[in-house]
Each structure stands twice: as structure tokens, then as C-alpha cells.
Amino acid sequence: MNKLVFKNLLPLSISIFVMICISLLWKKISIPLHIPSEIEGEYKEYNHHHLNDTLRFVLIVVLSLLSYVVSFALVHKNSNSIKELIFNRSFEKIAFKTNKKQFPYIIFFLIILIVNFVSTDLPTYKLDIFHEGQLLSGAINSNLKSNFWLGSYLNTGLFYDILNTKFAWKIFGVESIGSYRIFQVLLNYIFIFFTILLSYKLSKIFNLDEQKEIYFFFILSIFLIYNYNISYPNFPNYRDICSIIFLILLINTFFKQNFINTNFFFIGNLCFFSLLWSLDRGVFLNATFLFVIILLIIKKKYLNVISSILGFGISCLIFIYFIGFIEFKEFFNNSINILKYNEIWNGLIHPQPFSGEKNSTRASKAIILIILNGIIISNYFLNKNNNLFFNSKIILLVFYLMGIFYYKIGLSRSDGGHIVIGASINTILFSTLLIQFIMKNEIINKLLNYFPLRKIIFLLFLPVIFILLSFNELKINKLDNILNFKHRLKEFVNFEDKYFVRDEYFLFINELNKLLINQNCIQTINYDPTIYYFLKKESCTKYYYTFILGTKNDQKNFIRDLEIKKPKILVYKDKKDTYKYSPEKRFKIINDYINKNYKDFTTISNFKLILLKSE
């Protein structure tokens, strides 16, 4: 075997061996259970500590990469040392060279997205009571109470749970499910456009010539459109928009000679804003930027650090000024409580990699992808023959760390969808590294040099057009959709809400409305958060979305609010709700209070109502 091939294969083989060993020991890696007794869920049922899966993931990734790095350094005597890279290597002073030939392709993709948006069939499917109700009732609750966290206990973030829906109603001039839905679709398209801008920025960091930059940008953009608009169009992908903007700004910062501190100031602002946009994504972004801050301190870039902290601090102060300190305090307490306990009651155990467990294949692919990305990036740093800019390597490392933090989504609630979302950043990163490898391949280079640019771009156009015509909503017979978009949009946002729900459910809402006509507020003790929106009534407690209740303190606060408002009628049980951990099982303190103070009243369409005993 060629000596060079052996030197390259040995570290990889050792890393694979370590990965397999950790996966075989997966179930043995365990922390003693420590869960508050009142929090019911899968973790408690199976005596599973909520940090078990995180620890297992950290070990399989870190040990696999560490074994690769150590063995690589041992067999390649002239490899770069970690100490030299961290402490002695300085950031390069590099400025982008503007490639004006790329601009028409950015416009092309923008047109594709606009045409796709106006030609799509509008989302008329039945309402997801559980997920969409969270956003609709969050907005109506905020409107009626004229506050945010003081009146509502939020699960995901201010913008996701409340403001995006309120913006939709404001823009389209009507409080309807249709206006909420079309705005969600629009946000996803805006997000995709930002991923295309990221693709453009990434094409600049690999020291490619102008022609290859165009190929890189075009191919990666095709992948991103396919991934987000065709493979997973119904996910709320826009929750990741702050992460994409962060990467764009960071690339600008490392590849520009001017306005560097201004860029860091904006990044600081973005870090705070991201916590309001979507709490978990904000935490991942801030954790990633903390690494950048530490790196800047090591490199003695103190002005950059100060600019970032000022950006974060000023945004925070402006926010406090507009909402008030008491509201901000509730935001802080709400956020800490969600981050501390959400995983405990909502978590699903992560499957063992390479096993026959449900979703194991998807999880195994995600872990392999994450380790493979880490190996490639480690190689960039260790290999002295690699001519990639040091700034580019740092960008890729930050990109990778963000992807590591993102996989916490898949670790916390390990169903198929959440594993895919958790691996999404690393999927983009792998595509980026793969396309860059293709662009550097000698055979590909000969082909690119042989064929003129226009012919290759034309060949690349064909799969784009084929994909969009065949798999998505952009079809020839939907030309009418484009021509009639304005009329369709107006009609859609003004659809009656009953159009989006089952007849049985709407009948229940009408009957309930008659019973509660004189009641100022309503409260559910089931997992249906949509009722508040349909009845246009505020929740009697902060917990309109009862599914996110968990701790003893949460339940006591719930009871305290009930005692203040004393609602005569409560919506108690949904007999069709088959969720394994029912409210009766999870909220024992609340149920004790209900049993003492309320009695059976009536049942409407599988919903059980209870009446205050004093009535």
C-alpha cells in the first residue's frame, strides 16, 4: 500500500473504530437519574437522565475526532500543532473580490423563489390544533392582555409564539388563519433567499477563481432550494434565519478590511435578537459566538470584543426601555424555566446509533455526517499542504460548532423530524465541503476548462428547472395561479376560520361560546391551545398552552391565577386526545385542586366541561 495512502487511512480507521465502540457502549453511558418527582414524561418513565443523550453524543463526537487528530499528528510528523494554530497564527487581512458575474444568478434564484411563491397552491389543509393553535392563541392572548410574558407563558420565543402572527394580521388587515398561514409561507421563502446569500458568501472563502465561484454558488444554491423548499417545505425553517444571517455577517467580518467593528456590533445585536426570535436557536447562536469571543480575546482583538458586547448590551437596554423592567424580568424567568425543564418533560430518548431502534438509521446518518465534517475541518487545520485561508478555516470551524449545538434539537426530542432539523446546519456544511472538493478535483478542473462557462451553467439550469417543474408547485398548469395571485391571496386571507377545522370541532366552539358568553376569560386543562383564538377570549392563567406546564412551581402559579379569576367553567378533558402523558397524569397538583373546587358539568363533542362548585 502506498505510504501516503496508509498515513491518511490510518487516522480515519482509528476514528471509525472509536465511533463504533462508543455506539456499542451507548446504553452503558448513563448519569444517575435526578428528575423532580412532579415532572412526568418518557425520561422519568424509563429512568433516563435528561443529559444522558447529550453526554453520549459529546463522547462519540469528541473521542472520534480526538482519536483522528492524535493519530494524524503521530503519522504526519510535519503537521501543524494545535498550540501554534491557536496562539501564534494571526487572522489574515483579506478582502473579497467582487465577482459581478454572480449577480445575475442571485437575481435568477430570487425570481425562481418569487414565481414559486405566487404560483403555489395556498395552504388550505386542516388546522394543526396543537402546533398552529400555539401561535394563533399566543397572538390573540397578547392582544387582549396588552402584554407578552406577564400574560402568557411562552414556549418558543416572542416572535414565533406571538409577534409573527400579529405582524401577519397587521399586514393583511384581518385576524384570520389564512393571513397567519400565508405569512408563515412568506417567512420560509425569505429564509431560503438568505440561504442563497450565504451560498454566495461561502463561494468567496475557498480561494476559487471567478468561474469556479459561480459553479460553487450555483450548485450549493440548487441544493439549498431543494432541501428547504422541496424536501422539507412544511417545517418552520425560518426559525433558523438568525443563524444564517450570523454566518453571513461573520464571513463579512473576516473577509473585509473596513467596517469590521461595525459588523461585530451588528452581530452583538443579532445575538440578543435571536433569543426573542426563537429561544433555543438563540441559545445555539450565542454559544457559537461565545467561542468567537474567546478566540478574539486569545488573538488580542479587544476592540472587536467590545463592539460585540456593546451591540448585545445596547439591544438589551432598548428592549427593556420599550417593554419595561417587570416584563423583561418575566422574559428572563420564563426563558430560564423553559431551558431548564422543557427537555425533562418533553424529551424523547435518542436511539442508539447503528441499532434496530426507531429512528436509529436517521440518527446514525446525522452522527456520521457530524463526525465526517469534523474530520474534514480538522484536516484543513492540521495539514500543512492545505492552502485554505486561516480565516476560511475559522469560518468553517464556527459553522461546524453551530451545527454541533444545533443537534441538541435532535438529542432533546429524538423523533425523525427533530433529528433532521438538528442535523440541518451540518447538512449545509457537508454540502459546502463536498462542492468545494469537487471544484478542486483535477478531473473536474479539466472538464470546466474544456467546456465554456455558459454551456455548463445551461446544463446546471436543466436540473433546477426539472426539479422545480416536477416536484414542487411550479407547474405549467399553474400559470393561472400566477395571474390570479392577488385575487387568490385576498380570498385566502378572508376565508372564514371554520373552513380550516373539522365540522365537529367548529360545532364544539359554537356551543362553548354560548356557554361562556358572559365569562371574561377561559381556561383549558387539556392540550388544545386553539380555543382562545376561536372564542377571542384571553386565558385565565398565563398558561394558555398547558402542554408546557411541568414543575411544581408552574402548577402552583396556575392555581394562583385560577383563584384570582375564579372562572365558572373550565374546558377539562379532550376524550380524543391519545397522548401518552395526559394532563391528569402530569399535573397532579392542579388535578387535586380541580377535584376539590370543580364538579362535572357537561360534555360537548368529546370535550368535558367542569363547573365551579360554588355555582
**Envelope shape:** globular
User: What is the number of helical segments per DSSP (H or I, 4+ residues)?
Assistant: 28
- Beta-strand level of the residues, as a percent range? under 5%
So what's the oligomer here?
Answer: single chain
Please give the share of residues in helix. 55-70%
Radius of gyration: 27 Å
- Helical/strand content category: mainly alpha
Widest β-sheet, arrangement of strands: 3-5-4
Please state the average pLDDT score. 88
| Main sheet makeup | 3 strands, antiparallel
> Which residue ranges are poorly predicted, with pLDDT under 50 across at least 5 consecutive positions?
469-475
User: Span between N and C termini?
Assistant: 88 Å
Please tally the β strands and state the result: 5
Task: Please supply descriptive tags for the structure shown above.
615 residues; single chain; two-stranded parallel ribbon; 28 helices; mainly alpha; globular
Task: Explain this structure.
It is a single chain. The protein has 615 residues and is mainly alpha-helical. It has 28 helices and 5 strands. The longest helix has 26 residues, at 177-202. It is globular. Residues 469-475 have low confidence and may be disordered.
